[in-house]
């Protein structure tokens, strides 16, 4: 955790007070992050080695002694874990006390956090801090999406009663998308196709939440484009993003400075959000406007784009959400409805791709122990598009539209490249695992009868390489296969001359 305070002067940075030792649990270094990601955490929800922008809470107080008339103080939380919602709740508890009591409060909080257990995928944790217990569920790849909000776990014997967070990482999607509910499907298509989008919001918090909400609406498809929840003129890529000599990059940019309206007028999609409304109010929907109507600085809220959607709008979803708002349905339930709709939409789009990709896998009977595994068949876009007639998204989705056109454009996006590379890598690993199993089930003695020492040593080296990869969870191999592979290596090495045994198995 980092804290700092400074007069509100542009470009002026002042270090905060000395900090307590870093906590070892949720807020620890990369070791906790790796332990979560490597033990069943959902890969689509994590960010790999990418650092998530740190949550922060700021306070601004009038002060006539300061040149600009205000004194600013902020508390910033830094972690390699993308638990945005948990950290927001934590900051809302800690920051007010810290602003009044400074370092002693921060030291006490860090001592409490230091006692938190390490996050394990699939577990529900009770995290005490400042007299409050935060109850959170650590997401796992085995978690199934639900049509309603997550069920609360039992909290008997816990005093005080815990504050239950429905998610540690997923934002309140309905609250973020309230002003753009009528255009959620259009925004989903823009995200799917990796289109450059500028989000101009009234504050860094609104900007960040909208960008993170947009990048999360493609689940379970991994978001493979660049995104900046809060971008300023001081960022190093400012010149790259504002140049007009080349097309805008595939990035979702969150900003608050109206100056970007003038600077990025050449961007094809600009979303300007107004001041947030009260939770109980019916949301005034942002209108769809042409990019030519963009004006300098005084541009009104709206989605400025000439993009025409490939799919027809699902009006039933909007009616359902607005009806729930009129009935004062909890925001968590509204979010669950919206997230379920986007999940089903993405799955309907991805399932045909998954089925076609699976057909490119060589048959298991073609894998023989002593030959190089067969290659994965190439992905042919025309063959895939022809397969949509019998196994397209129309089987799981009622939405009509130009699905073929959407797929053709998707093939040019970073998301298709990222999805294909990941699936190809998984299939290649599966082929290696099947080949290793075939070797372990073959008759080794018969094979070795007419083989030279070079061929035998080559087999040992290859088996060891795959054994190392399998033990590092890079190959989907059963434990029984690993045991047979180790036995094979011992048998083969034992058949070699003593000098080679010493080389292959040094003491």
Give a description of the structure.
This protein has 507 residues and is α/β, with parallel strands linked by helices. Helices cover 41% and strands 11% of the residues. It has a six-stranded mixed beta sheet, covered by helices on one side. Strands 1-3-2 form a three-stranded antiparallel beta sheet, covered by helices on one side. Helix 9 (315-326) runs antiparallel to helix 10 (331-359) and helix 15 runs antiparallel to helix 16 (479-494).
Compile the SSE list and pairings.
Blueprint: E1 2-7, H1 30-37, E2 56-62, E3 70-76, H2 84-101, H3 103-113, E4 124-129, E5 132-137, E6 163-164, H4 173-177, H5 184-192, E7 197-200, H6 204-216, E8 226-228, H7 238-242, E9 251-255, H8 259-263, E10 269-272, E11 288-289, E12 302-305, H9 315-326, H10 331-359, H11 381-391, H12 403-410, H13 414-441, H14 444-448, H15 453-471, H16 479-494, H17 498-504
Parallel strand pairs: 5-6, 7-9, 7-10, 8-9, 11-12
Antiparallel strand pairs: 1-3, 2-3, 4-5, 10-12
Helix pairs in contact: 2-3, 9-10, 10-11, 13-16, 15-16
């Amino acid at each position: 955790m980092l804290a700092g305070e400074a007069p509100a002067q542009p470009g002026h940075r002042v270090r905060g007070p000395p900090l307590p030792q870093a906590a070892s649990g949720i807020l620890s270094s990369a070791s906790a992050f790796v332990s979560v990601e490597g033990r069943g955490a959902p890969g689509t929800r994590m960010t790999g080695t990418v650092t998530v922008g740190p949550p922060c809470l700021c306070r601004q107080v009038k002060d006539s002694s300061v040149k600009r008339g205000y004194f600013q103080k902020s508390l910033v939380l830094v972690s390699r874990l993308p638990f945005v919602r948990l950290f927001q709740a934590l900051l809302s508890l800690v920051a007010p006390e810290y602003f009044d009591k400074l370092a002693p409060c921060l030291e006490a909080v860090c001592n409490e956090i230091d006692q938190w257990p390490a996050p394990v995928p699939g577990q529900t944790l009770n995290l005490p801090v400042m007299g409050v217990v935060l109850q959170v569920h650590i997401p796992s790849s085995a978690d199934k999406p639900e049509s309603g909000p997550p069920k609360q776990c039992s909290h008997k014997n816990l005093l005080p009663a815990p504050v239950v967070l429905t998610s540690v990482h997923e934002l309140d999607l309905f609250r973020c998308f309230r002003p753009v509910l009528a255009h959620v499907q259009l925004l989903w298509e823009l995200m799917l196709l990796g289109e450059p989008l500028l989000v101009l919001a009234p504050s860094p918090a609104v900007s960040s939440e909208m960008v993170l909400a947009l990048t999360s609406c493609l689940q379970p498809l991994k978001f493979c484009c660049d995104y900046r929840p809060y971008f300023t003129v001081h960022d190093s890529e400012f010149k790259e993003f504002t140049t007009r000599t080349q097309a805008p990059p595939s990035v979702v940019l969150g900003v608050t400075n109206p100056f970007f309206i003038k600077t990025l007028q050449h961007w094809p999609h600009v979303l300007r959000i107004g001041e947030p409304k009260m939770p109980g109010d019916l949301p005034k929907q942002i209108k769809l406007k042409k990019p030519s109507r963009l004006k300098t600085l005084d541009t009104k809220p709206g989605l400025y784009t000439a993009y025409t959607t490939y799919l027809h709008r699902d009006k039933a979803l909007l009616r359902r959400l607005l009806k729930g708002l009129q009935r004062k349905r909890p925001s968590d339930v509204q979010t669950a409805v919206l997230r379920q709709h986007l999940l089903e939409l993405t799955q309907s789009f991805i399932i045909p791709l998954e089925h076609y990709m699976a057909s490119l896998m060589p048959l298991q009977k073609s894998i023989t122990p002593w030959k190089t595994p067969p290659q994965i068949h190439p992905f042919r876009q025309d063959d895939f598009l022809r397969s949509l007639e019998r196994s397209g998204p129309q089987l799981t989705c009622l939405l009509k539209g130009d699905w073929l056109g959407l797929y053709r454009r998707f093939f040019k996006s970073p998301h298709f490249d990222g999805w294909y590379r990941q699936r190809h890598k998984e299939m290649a690993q599966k082929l290696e695992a099947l080949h290793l199993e075939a070797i372990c089930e073959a008759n080794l003695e018969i094979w070795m009868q007419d083989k030279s020492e070079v061929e035998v040593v080559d087999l040992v080296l290859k088996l060891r390489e795959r054994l190392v990869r399998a033990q590092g969870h890079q190959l989907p191999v059963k434990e029984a296969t690993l045991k047979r592979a180790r036995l094979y290596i011992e048998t083969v090495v034992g058949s070699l001359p003593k000098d080679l045994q010493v080389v292959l198995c040094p003491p």
